[in-house]
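Action item from last meeting closed. Structure (307 res):
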């Protein structure tokens, strides 16, 4: 899932003729060209993500929110990440989850102890020495507020805003020398805490949503993407990664949810198109991605919105 710095709207839409899949589902393709970067009116004044996240959706909110029904039951987001869509919607009922336990504890720390998180962050130093000391810390033994402050600091001061771990679940992103970057926005953190106040947040596999989602609910899936090439498989947000088998299981789960009248929206890379060619509507959007360590290889790429 590349860092998220800007929102992108749309300026031109062309719809291909609809067709029927083998099971009778209506299929269509909507091609969207990127417009100048402007804030979405629907999300002005709402809290925004407090961490940078690979594949974050702030720049695609206009396109994603276009797919959100006017009325729905509980909102579910099984790949929480930076939570851009959740914060934009700020729904009254939501169940948020992720397989990254530290990320989940970070959200819980902000929901339940935001004042403590802010106090801790104010004492952190933007130096390489302090960053390395924090990186070596056994943070899993700490309280949720400490985990939240640690997570935000490492995310903002690490190279390119990455969160990456090795097979031993050890954070291994190098120092980013981001001395001028703002580690946190106190007002926004408090707004995020208020938005999370009624949300359930748990660490679990994405498949658990099937047992909770009811007809009329809305589920947004933003998984680690199908890689664009053999060398771009960046999925190390947990020690287990996210495999092609997981991608197929996610597709099957999304279809089962659709068949029981749960509204689903799913994001993925353009290379996932073959997984969703039957039984789903696929929309193409342009997004700026910046995970590559070389700035000259970052830029606009094609992504998919699937429903």
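Sequence:
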């Amino acid at each position: 899932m590349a860092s998220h710095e800007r929102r992108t709207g749309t300026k031109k839409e062309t719809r291909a003729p609809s067709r029927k899949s083998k099971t009778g589902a209506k299929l269509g393709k909507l091609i969207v060209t990127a417009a100048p970067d402007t804030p979405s009116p629907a999300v002005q004044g709402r809290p925004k993500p407090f961490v940078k996240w690979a594949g974050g959706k702030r720049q695609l909110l206009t396109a994603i929110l276009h797919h959100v029904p006017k009325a729905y039951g509980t909102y579910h987001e099984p790949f929480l990440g930076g939570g851009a869509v959740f914060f934009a919607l700020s729904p009254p009922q939501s169940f948020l989850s992720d397989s990254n336990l530290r990320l989940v504890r970070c959200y819980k720390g902000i929901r339940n102890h935001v004042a403590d998180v802010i106090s801790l962050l104010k004492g952190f130093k933007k130096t390489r020495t302090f960053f390395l000391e924090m990186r070596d810390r056994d943070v899993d033994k700490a309280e949720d507020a400490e985990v939240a402050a640690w997570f935000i600091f490492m995310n903002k001061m690490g190279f390119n805003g990455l969160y990456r771990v090795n097979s031993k679940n050890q954070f291994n992103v190098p120092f980013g020398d981001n001395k001028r970057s703002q580690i946190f926005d106190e007002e926004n953190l408090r707004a995020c805490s208020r938005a999370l106040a009624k949300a359930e947040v748990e660490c679990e596999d994405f498949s658990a949503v099937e047992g909770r989602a009811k007809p009329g609910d809305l589920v947004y899936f933003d998984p680690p993407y199908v890689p664009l090439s053999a060398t771009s498989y960046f999925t190390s947000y947990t020690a287990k990664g996210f495999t092609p088998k997981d991608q197929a299981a996610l597709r099957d789960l999304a279809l089962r949810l659709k068949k029981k009248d749960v509204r689903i929206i799913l994001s993925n890379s353009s290379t996932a198109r073959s997984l969703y060619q039957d039984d789903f509507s696929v929309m193409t959007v342009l997004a700026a991605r910046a995970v590559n360590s070389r700035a000259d290889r970052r830029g606009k790429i094609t992504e998919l919105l699937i429903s």
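Note appended to the action item: Residues 101-122 form the longest helix (22 residues).
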